[in-house]
Design a protein that fits this description.
1061 residues, tt1808, chain A, nine-stranded mixed sheet, 32 strands, site-specific DNA-methyltransferase (adenine-specific), restriction system, EC 2.1.1.72
Length: 1061
């Protein structure tokens, strides 16, 4: 599973400055690690015996590190975790801090996957670790940031080319330049750019080809021609891929195009270009022996004669231009099968839309929404996790069942009893045969993302058997060629869309195609049909009888594994005819369920008695009435091993609302069966090093009760129970105040908003200029002081704001008129002007019924902690929310430690741990009926007053600095009371230096006399600020105690809250 994009990696390898240095390092490496006698001694060594030697021989002598206890060491053995007593076997250090962790095992550990979690456990314990290295002395793996992909090196048989990559990534100087991370980032950027560009060209070709075929072949219906267009595209893609991977003669497409052009232009021997391609398709189907080259009969069904496709006409110029354009891509280095997988999956959105439009059907835009700015696909970390925990779980069970212990294979044949060797050989044979009998199905296979992941997993598992076989028998490691066997025996898929089925087949062929080997016919394994309905009267020719279609599977009781991403089709888009069929067939039917619900029971029905199911689906059923029937079904009939709730994070670009992962086994577990639950509350999930390491074990019987709660993200059981209790015993905030209102969206901030000290002179004295607050200015209990002004073309007309006639305000009209064209083109406004519902100068969005001129509670939309305060006679922007309440007691409750912990647990977090304070979380805050407390009100009034005093002192010194030195915007100086004088003075001089530079003036340091005066003034003001801060802290603690009392918290519960902060 490569970490890097091939073309990017080639550039970096070519750029290695000292090729000689690599050769010298390789000579050192081979002298030690390729010595056969030494290899045998390493294999016989225990883990502890060779750990230090391994680090010294590879990392010190070859890669250039200095090991502890040498002076200035950057490599150490044994790095203790920050949070517990566990230790990594080694670490790479930069400035004394770990940037890489190393986990080592003996050669008896053949499968390095087994130590992956352990290694990432060390990584997660040390901030700043990027590189994760695991090794069994014979193999070495390198991960960067996460466990999705890695580079693996066979040290005992490492070629110079592979060593050059090892050196590029792990040599001391390179790792301190962070070169591996840079190559990975460049690879991701390159892959994204190629994917977008290729998809654009591919999509354009399909659309123009389809339109041209429809125009030139009117005798056929459009839907049939659309399907044939897609089949033709599949053929071309295989050719482009195969000629660059040397499965076909290189530059085959260029040869065809050039020959056609020469015959047409120079020899006056014209024939349609498409006829030349049809001839080539025939070669690929039957094979061809020619004078210049031979073409193997890859067959597989893709190039089988198609009477209709062979009879259509296509414009020469269109075919020439687009086949040349697409064949220009390098399908070997630039376009790997992963990029094609992304393109295939995104293609399905367009295919569904176009098909539905041709047939005049309604389509669910939430599912088939076309992604114009990016490519949607199932992320690999999801497909990998589901496959690892379904197929992988069964593999681990089987190894235990047959007694396969990889440590027994470490010793070679010499001196071992024949019976022992036969027993071990039988274990390997039994396990391989069991692998070949596994049946894995995706009942909504789409472009084949899950089937490709299962294919990758099974190939690796067969290679694992090969390694054990090699250890047992000795000799050179030979990896078995099992891809065709896996396609024929292990993988099954069904999809309602025929084009999806063909794309899934193509994606699997591209993964496994080899020169001179026929493509596996997948017609018996991947089929088109309606997975959920077997009645032809309902589903027509898409009706799918699973037992008849896959008799060999159901003769064994059903599939071993069902995996996939069931279609997210909302209930209102399901036809009444289909609903009636579901009602008669599925016990989870309610009449209000979305389509994915039926796939749960369907998976159960097609699994064998001990089968595993892993789905990525919406979690909406955990919080809806219609979901109760499904929950009851899952609780009574399945054993749920994993549930991952992504809450409302947009993991898949809007493709699934409230996504979740569930893995269950058909074997019913005990009442005390534990489920691994992870609630992902942080939207930097894509960068989480080991996303699934922070899971909580819960009893399955309590799982869905927990998921139905807003506090399901609490990882501490005591905290969960506390938050659940207050949620159940107190009313939500929504019953006390109206919905929070988001702030103003002008649609053109530069036209309406100005710094308070830089309002255009033409607007001096304007009654339409008002204070304007932004989210980062809102701080807990502090006065809402706006640093900006807004030109607001609204006035209070009674209770609500009303749009003014701007022409009445002459100077304001002239000012806005200068930007009239730009303002008229704003989204929403432009369409409104055409309809007569909007005027050119109004805002894109403003809540005209919000009481801006009264006292209200305001808070930022995103914040590291809770920051509620009061505002009055002030407008605010989109980064703020306003609660229409003037209650001091409510403000005290919202700013309390208890509610801080509640919001920390319920809110989704943005990058850096920032809380996303969406309305649904705020309105769900439980509030006691008795919150209007006189004592609490008085304390909040006091803390507001003290915060106001503190702000005055802070602002006074800041204003002095600004007026005396013209220094603006220094964050450190704005918080001067948190600094020591030496820090303050250093920051002041730094800011003065910058001002002088900006003005082009000479910088002159302040004298000692001035410094002494400033020191005295600074310390006096800081002492005043600290005295006020001490009062604030005391009052704050008193408010927290009052809030604890309002909620009836015990001493033990208070301790849980305090610990959770």
């Amino acid at each position: 599973m490569p970490l890097f994009q091939t073309s990017v990696l080639k550039k970096y390898l070519k750029s290695i400055e000292s090729k000689e240095e690599v050769k010298v390092a390789y000579e050192k490496f081979t002298t030690y690690f390729h010595n056969v006698e030494r290899q045998e001694n390493i294999r016989k060594s225990k883990e502890e015996q060779f750990q230090e030697g391994f680090l010294r021989e590879l990392f010190v002598k070859v890669l250039g590190y200095t090991i502890n206890p040498e002076p200035n060491y950057n490599l150490t053995t044994e790095l203790k975790n920050v949070k517990d007593a566990k230790k990594a076997d080694g670490a790479i250090l930069s400035a004394g801090k770990p940037i890489g962790v190393i986990e080592l095992k003996g050669t008896s550990t053949t499968d390095l996957n087994k130590i992956e979690n352990q290694a990432f456990g060390y990584k997660n314990n040390h901030e700043g670790v990027t590189y994760i290295i695991t090794s069994n002395f014979e193999k070495l793996r390198l991960y960067i940031d996460n466990a999705i992909d890695f580079e693996e090196f066979y040290l005992f048989d490492l070629s110079f080319e592979r060593f050059a990559l090892l050196w590029l990534l792990l040599a001391k100087d390179n790792i301190f330049k962070d070169l591996g991370k840079q190559i990975k980032n460049d690879s991701l950027t390159e892959e994204e750019q190629i994917t977008k560009k290729l998809y654009k060209d591919y999509s354009t070709f399909r659309q123009k080809l389809f339109n041209n075929i429809v125009e030139l072949n009117p005798q056929y219906d459009k839907l049939t021609l659309f399907k044939k267009t897609q089949k033709l595209l599949d053929r071309f893609l295989f050719i482009f891929f195969a000629e660059d991977r040397l499965l076909l003669p290189p530059n085959s497409t260029y040869e065809i195009l050039n020959q056609w052009k020469m015959l047409k232009d120079e020899l006056d021997a014209y024939f349609p270009l498409y006829s030349r391609f049809k001839k080539y398709f025939g070669y690929l189907d039957k094979g061809h022996k020619g004078r210049q080259y031979d073409i193997f009969a890859y067959n597989g069904g893709l190039f089988k004669p198609d009477e209709l496709l062979d009879s259509i006409k296509i414009d020469d110029d269109l075919l020439y231009f687009h086949t040349k354009q697409l064949s220009d891509y390098d399908f070997d280095s630039d376009v790997d099968v992963n990029i094609l997988g992304h393109i295939f999956e995104n293609s399905l959105n367009e295919i569904e839309e176009i098909s539905a439009e041709i047939e005049g059907e309604d389509i669910d835009r939430t599912k088939t929404k076309r992604k114009k700015d990016g490519v949607f696909y199932t992320p690999k970390y999801i497909t990998k996790y589901i496959v690892d925990n379904t197929v992988g779980a069964l593999c681990e069970e089987q190894k235990k069942a047959i007694g396969l212990d990889e440590s027994e294979f470490e010793k070679n044949r010499k001196g071992r009893r024949k019976a022992t060797l036969e027993r071990l050989q039988k274990q390997l044979d039994d396990y391989r045969n069991w692998l070949l009998d596994l049946t894995i199905c995706d009942p909504a296979c789409g472009s084949g993302a899950f089937l490709n992941q299962a294919l990758e997993f099974l190939i690796e598992e067969h290679h694992y058997v090969d390694e054990l076989q090699n250890k047992l028998l000795g000799g050179t490691l030979m990896l078995s060629d099992v891809a065709n066997s896996i396609l024929e025996k292990n993988l099954y898929g069904v999809d309602i869309n025929n084009e999806s089925v063909e794309i899934a087949k193509l994606s699997l062929w591209l993964r496994t195609a080899q020169k001179g080997r026929k493509l596996t016919s997948l017609n018996n394994n991947i089929k088109c049909g309606n997975s959920l309905i077997d009645d032809p009267e309902v589903a027509g020719d898409k009706a799918f009888n699973w037992e008849k279609e896959f008799p060999e599977v159901f003769a064994q009781g059903g599939f071993d594994v069902v995996i996939g991403n069931p279609p997210y089709v909302r209930n209102e888009f399901i036809s009444e005819k289909d609903k009636q069929a579901f009602n008669s067939k599925y016990s989870v039917y309610t009449g209000k369920s979305d389509l994915y619900v039926y796939f749960f029971e369907h998976a159960f029905n097609i699994l064998n008695s001990s089968g595993e199911c892993g789905y990525i689906v919406s979690s909406k059923y955990t919080k809806t009435k219609y979901g109760k029937v499904l929950i009851d079904f899952l609780q009574k009939k399945t054993s749920i091993s994993v549930f991952i709730d992504f809450q409302d994070l947009d993991v898949f670009n809007g493709a699934i609302a409230y996504p979740s992962v569930i893995v269950y086994n058909k074997r019913k577990g005990s009442k005390n069966k534990e489920t691994l639950l992870l609630v992902v509350s942080n939207d930097n999930y894509r960068e989480v090093d080991n996303l699934f390491s922070g899971a909580l074990k819960v009893n399955q019987s309590e799982l869905f009760d927990r998921l139905g709660s807003w506090t399901s993200g609490a990882t501490d059981e005591g905290l969960f129970n506390l938050l659940k209790r207050i949620q159940e015993n107190f009313n939500p905030l929504s019953e006390i105040v109206a919905k929070p209102q988001v702030g103003i969206k002008t649609g053109s901030n530069s036209s309406y908003i100005f710094p308070s000290n830089d309002v255009p002179k033409v607007l001096d004295g304007s009654p339409l200029i008002q204070n304007y607050l932004i989210g980062r200015e809102v701080k807990r209990y502090k006065p809402a002081i706006a640093k900006n002004k807004i030109l607001i073309p609204y006035t209070s007309g009674g209770r609500n704001l009303e749009l003014v006639n701007i022409k009445v305000f002459e100077k304001e009209y002239r000012f806005l008129e200068e930007n009239r064209d730009k303002l008229s083109k704003r989204a929403v406004i432009d369409k409104g002007i055409l309809k007569g519902t909007k005027t050119w100068y109004e805002f894109q969005q403003i809540k005209t019924d919000f009481p801006y001129h009264a006292k209200y509670i305001v808070y930022p939309d995103i914040s590291l902690s809770v920051n509620f305060t009061f505002a009055k006679e002030i407008y605010y922007d989109m980064t703020c929310f306003g609660l229409p309440s003037d209650s001091e007691s409510l403000l005290g409750v919202l700013n309390s430690k208890l509610i801080t912990v509640f919001l920390n647990t319920t809110c989704v977090k943005a990058r850096g741990g920032y809380l996303r304070l969406k309305s649904q979380y705020i309105l769900n805050i439980p509030i006691p009926k008795s919150f209007q407390n006189k004592e609490l009100k008085t304390s909040v009034e006091s803390i507001l007053q003290e915060e106001s005093f503190l702000s005055e002192i802070q602002e006074r010194l800041v204003c002095l600095i600004e007026s005396k030195f013209k220094i603006l915007g220094s964050k450190k100086l704005q918080h001067w009371n948190e600094l020591e004088f030496a820090e303050f003075w250093k920051e002041l001089e730094k800011a003065r230096k910058k001002v002088a530079k900006d003005k082009g003036e000479a910088y002159k340091k302040l004298g000692l006399g001035e410094e002494a005066e400033w020191m005295q003034y600074f310390e006096e003001q800081k002492q005043k600020a600290q005295a006020i801060q001490s009062k604030i802290t005391i009052i704050d603690n008193e408010i927290d105690q009052m809030v604890y009392e309002l909620y009836g918290l015990t001493e033990e519960e208070i301790a849980i809250v305090e610990e959770a902060l």
